[in-house]
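User
New here, help please:
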Amino acid sequence: MKTFKLITIALFSFAITACHSGDDKQKPVTANQPKDTVVAAVKENFPKGEIIEKVVCKSDATQSYAMYLPSTYSIDKTYPVVYAFDAHGTGKLPVSMYKELAEQYGYILIGSNNSKNGTPFEESERIANILFADSQNRLAINNQRIYLLGFSGGARVANGITIKNGAIAGVICCGAAAPGFNSEYPRNNYTWLGIAGDDDFNSAEMRQYDMIDLAGHNVKHGLISFEGKHEWCPKEVMDEAFWWEELCEMRKDVKLKNDSLIKKRVTPIIKQIETLMKNNKVYDAFVLCKKTINFYDGLTDLTYCLSTFKTLKTNADVDKGLKAEEKSWSADKELQQYYMKGFQTFDLDRWKKEVTQLNGKIKTERDKNTIHLYKRVLGYLSLVAYMQASGALKQNSLPAAEYFCNVYALVDPTNSEAYYLTATVNAIQGNEKGVTDNLNKAAKNGFKDAERFVADTVFNKYKNLPACLEFQKVIGGK
């Protein structure tokens, strides 16, 4: 078979994001005015209780953000703000997913439409500063409660900015942990919360960042796991992250402490730990005890959690579970390295065999940690195949692009992007049937970006074909 050299792409723990060795000094948020100045600067009446998809920045019309203001919003007081960074620069996505939480907690929620994977960190930082300045000049924001939120490459941007910017109170990182620039040490006095799906290929990285990289630093940190892959987490999981920030604020200001709300949250958790102990699920009980202590220490009576946690620390089954988790970290790396070489040496028949074996193990394996491991591997392969296919297309290397697209569809057969990229290759090759077949597959698997298709000139000579007109109709185009 023909072998293809891997396209040179800036990889950092498998997310497309550039790194640099920038200045690690703490910097204030741009437009970090005193509270009264911010309120006085507000002159615009934005709609409340609804998503605004595009607010254009006044100082730079090329930049914009999606926004949600809680229905209680008023310029007579200030509000906490969460700035969200999506990996693809789709600010509306996290704002849409978490607007109910913004409403519930009384937060302003803002999503950047410009910061995206592939953007150098210096540029992402510049984009963020324009975003901060514009929103803080036009909205009643509490500059003591500024939080950043990001997914995948967006999480790396959010974490990097937080480390460099002393005015950020906390950061929530979903699907990635390490900052998007070289930083030997994090700053102190901020909060870090990670959220990782059990099937996320960056899961091990996030656990190590929480347990090792932040250990010994004056940073309140924790990690939430959920049943899912490399994706923005469900609203119910993100609710814990918003609540985490509320609890951290209660520690700073005792007047904000809400004993009834804390009790309402803690009581069912204690009952859950008791049930786990009765059912001899000691490792799960240990993990939940540890998380509960981390969330609520200093805010409520945790006698039961503390005593149970102390007892379980010397439990043999807990020790076995901890060692199994640590072992999975190295297993992730070994399999990723094995398959990274496969991108240079495997032909498609070999890939079919490997993927069949992985899916077979997922179906037959009884150990849940092993199942998660193989799912993480498939997720990793999907990302690398996407990156390599995209890189080959940019370099006009069609044989390589076609190969990586084929691998992409094998490892992630329900991902619409695999078929859209394959259709792109087919269009360049002049393969009309391939174009229409793969666009149809993209639509069936949820492709909805009509604006992208319309702007994609590679399809120009095919757009009036009946199949392409139908495709555009299905994805929501005119």
In short: DSSP finds 17 helices and ten strands in the chain. The first helix runs from residue 35 to 41. The CA atoms of residues 58 and 449 lie 27 Å apart. Residues 9-40 have pLDDT under 50 and may be disordered.
